[in-house]
Amino acid sequence: MSFKVAIIGRPNVGKSTLFNRLAGRKLALVDDTPGVTRDRRSHAAKLYDLHFEVIDTAGFEDAAPSTLQGRMRAQTEIAIQEADLIFFMVDAKAGLLPDDTTFAGIVRKSGKPVVLIANKAEARGAQGGMLEAWELGLGEPVPFSAEHGVGLPDLRDAVVEALGADRVFGEEDEDDGEIAASDVLIGEDIADPDAEEVPAYDENKPMRIAVVGRPNAGKSTMINALIGEERLLTGPEAGITRDSISVDWQWRGRPMKLFDTAGMRRKSRVQEKLERMSVQDGLHAVRFAEIVIIVLDATIPFEKQDLQIADLIIREGRAPVIAFNKWDLIDHPQAVLAELREKTERLLPQVRGIQAVPVSAETGRGLDKLMEAVVRTHRVWNSRVSTGKLNRWLETILAHHPPPAVAGRRLKIKYLTQAKTRPPGFVVSCSRPDAVPQSYVRYLTNSLREAFDMPGVPIRMALRTSD
Ligand code: GDP
Ligand code: GDP
C-alpha cells in the first residue's frame, strides 16, 4: 500500500459514503446513527488501478475534546497528520457553510496535497455549490456523487495529478510489457475483476488529450486548427491547474479536454507562465492525458527525441496516436506513408497497431481522420474483456501453443483475468511465475491483442502464483 488518504469535511457531506465505496463495503453500512462504521479507523481502498489506505475520520468523534468544534478540529488534525493526501469533501447541493471554510483553512495550512470533491453533484441545483467550492482555494473541484458512484474516473485522475504518477505507482508502473517482480503485486487482491464496479464507457466525459512533439513539428498550428484560434484566446474554461493547462472543446459533439504547453503559447492570459515552460513541461502534460498525439514533422520523422517521447508515453500507460504533419510537403505520399508506417511498427513494437495518420495542420487536411483515430484508440484503451471470454480463448491457446517445460517440469497456466483498464492490464495465474519465459509472455500479449482487437495501446501482463 503506497499512500494514505484522509477524507475530510464537515458532517453530512458524504464522507462515510465515499469511505465505504472506496473500501468496497456495502453501502447499507452507511447510517445516520453514530457508531456505524466506527469500529475501524482505516481500510484498504481501491480506485481502479490505485491502491491505498483510506482513513475514516467519522470514527474520531468519541475520543476527542468535549466541545463540538474542538472534537471536529481534533479529528481533522489527526487524520491530516497521518495522511499523504486529503480528500476534502463539500456538499454541492447544500453549498458552502461556515464549517466548510473552517475545515478548508486547516487543510490548507497543513500543506498536504488536496483533492477537492464536490459531492452530491447529481442533485438538482448542485451547480451553484460547485462554483462556490472554487472559493475554498483548494483547486478545481471534482464533481462527484458518492452515493451513485459518479465521478470515480475523475477522482482517480485527480489523485494521480495531486500526488504525481511516481508517488502513486512507484516502480511497478515503469514497464513496457516486461515482467518485473513488483508487477506480480498488481493483481494480488483482485479475486474477480468482473465482479467489481466498472463504469461503462462514458461518451459524455471529456476525453483528455495532450499534444506533444519537438519544437516546430506544428503543435500550435494543429491545436489552433482543431479548436479554433478564438476559442484558444477566450475559452471560458481554460485555466491553469498547478502546472498544467487545459482547454475544453468539442469534436463532433463529443467533449474534449486538451492539455498542452507549447501549443497554447498564444493564449495571452497565461503568456507569462507559458514562456517559462520547456520540453519537460510538455512531457508533464502526458501525465494528465489519456491519449497523447505525437506530432512528427513528416519531412524529418523519428528523431531520437520523438522516440524518447513515445517511450515515455507508453511507459506511463497512456495511448499514443501519431500525426505525420506537414503532409502537404510530401511528394510521393503513398510510398512515404507505407514506409513511415512500417518504420513506426518496427520502432514501437510495444504498441503494435498504433494509429498513425498523415495530416496537414496548415490546411486542415487529415485532422478529422486523426480525431477518429484518437477516439478509436481511447475506446481500446478503456476496453475490458470478460473473464469468461479470456479463459475460453486461453484454453485454445494452451491447446495449440502451451508454455514450454522448464527443467523438465511443465508450467501450468490456470487462468487469465483482466485486472484493469486504461491501459488494459491482465493477470496470468500460473504455477511458477518466475519460470515463465519472457518470450512466452510476449507471445501471450501479442495473441491477446490480436484476438480481442486491441491495437496501438500498451498492454500490461502480470504473472502471479495460483494456489
Ligand atoms: P458524513 O457525515 O460526511 O460521513 O456523510 P454520510 O456519508 O453519512 O452522508 C450523509 C448523507 O448524505 C446520507 O444521507 C447520504 O445518503 C447522503 N449522500 C452521500 N453521498 C451522496 C450523494 O452523492 N448524493 C446525494 N444526493 N446524497 C448523498
Ligand atoms: P510547434 O513549435 O510544434 O508549436 O510548431 P508550430 O505550430 O509553431 O509550427 C512550426 C512551423 O511549421 C510554422 O512555420 C508553421 O507554419 C509550420 N507548419 C505547421 N504545420 C504545417 C503543415 O501542416 N504544413 C506546412 N507546410 N507547414 C506547417
Please characterize this protein's 3D structure:
With 467 residues, the chain is an alpha/beta fold. 36% of the residues lie in helices and 21% in strands. It has helices at 15-22, 68-82, 98-110, 126-134, 152-163, 165-169, 183-186, 219-227, 229-234, 271-275, 279-288, 304-315, 333-347, 367-381, 387-400, 438-451, and strands spanning 4-8, 42-47, 50-55, 85-91, 114-119, 142-143, 207-212, 239-241, 244-251, 254-259, 291-297, 319-325, 356-358, 405-406, 409-410, 413-420, 425-430, 460-465. A 7-stranded mixed β-sheet has the order 8-9-10-7-11-12-13, with helices on both faces. Residues 27-40, 59-65, 171-198, 230-244 and 261-279 have low confidence and may be disordered. The structure holds guanosine-5'-diphosphate (2 copies). Residues 213, 215-221, 262-263, 325-326, 328-329, 360-362 line the site of one guanosine-5'-diphosphate.
Q: Would you tell me the overall average pLDDT?
A: 78
- Describe the main β-sheet briefly: 7 strands, mixed
Class inferred from helices and paired strands: alpha/beta
Beta-strand portion reads: 15-25%
Number of strand elements: 18
Trace the largest sheet across and list its strands. Answer: 8-9-10-7-11-12-13
